[in-house]
Amino acid sequence: MNKPNETRYRERIWQTYQEHVRSGQPVCLLGIETSCDETSAAVVEDGTKILSNVIASQAEIHKRFGGVVPEVASRRHVENITLTIEEALRLANKKLDDIAAIAVTYGPGLVGALLVGIAAAKAISFARGIPLIGVHHIAGHIYANRLVTELSFPLVALVVSGGHTELVLMREHGKYEILGQTRDDAAGEAYDKVARALSLPYPGGPHIDRLAQEGTPSIPLPRAWLEPDSFDFSFSGLKSAVLNTLHNASQRGETIPPADLAASFQASVVEVLVEKTVRAAIQVKARQVLLAGGVAANQALREQLSARCQAEGLPLVIPPLSLCTDNAAMIAAAGYISYRQGKFASLDLNGIPGLALTDVAE
Q1: Helix, strand, coil in percent for the chain, rounding step 5
Q2: How far apart are CA 33 and CA 28, in angstroms?
Q3: What is the β-pairing status of strands 28-33 and 316-317?
Q4: Third-level CATH fold of 152-318
Q5: Which regions of the chain carry the CATH code 3.30.420.40?
Q6: DSSP letter assigned to residue 76
Q7: Between β-strands 177-181 and 288-292, what pairing exists: parallel, antiparallel or unpaired?
Q8: Which pLDDT value is given to residue 362?
Q9: Half-sphere exposure in the Cβ direction for 96 (13 Å, CA)
């Protein structure tokens, strides 16, 4: 877009924004999420009230490949995006005239998938003259908790998903400090690889969780605590230990009960996640602990983190299962903070596959 048109666009959205703020009417944001293999659109009012949250999942399509195929995901997003947005508006009983701004994931994620959502968001923003807000995917997962209760600062968020394992400190809205992160495999990635070794379907995390409930954590597996003062994580060694245990048993002609191995693996992962989270929260004197990301749906993690936080007197917030996996309501919830701060993206917003969470504070 040339500069005169860009200037007119900015003036138009800023005027729309100011008029809406002066009106005192509720702020309805349309959220769009297409970072991986879910096409999602949602309408959220005032950053906390979900009016609709539509998700078109591709899990069945990618299951036969044992993981997400980027090109297939992108094409499916193209097919689903318009219908998903229309359905979100219909369920919310809203029209585009009622939408104050568009919040869309712009990273991290699969670049082709991101661009589908961004293109749709830009088109609506330009056509309707309403603000465009770029949202970090992990920030969305964190703000899924604000759809449950108000956030209290300072807080520590444990973000666990297929691509991320991070401990995040927040002292105020929209500002993030990484206390610790994975040095190799993310927790969800380790779950998927161990599930594959146990011949469980994709995605592996839920299957490992269910199988673990039937077994006993009787197989000794390592815990990667790293340096005494480190809040970083490492799950590559644990994954390798599981594979070696299976290989060695096979060489000896022995059979290891899959449920026991799943339970032992999960016990190792959960213990490290829980203990490091609690230690970090105590160290920074957190007023609240948040659990976020797809692995937040894990039953053992939810139960053990709840027990440890209760023992330490730390208020814990865990989103419902419907808000743990990728969804657009969490993107709208995070986007609402930017809306109130008047922080909008321009029409040159691009997808950034490796976007760092700390970049959004710049």
Answers
A1: 50, 15, 30
A2: 16
A3: unpaired
A4: Nucleotidyltransferase; domain 5 (3.30.420)
A5: 3-143+325-361, 152-318
A6: H
A7: unpaired
A8: 44
A9: 14
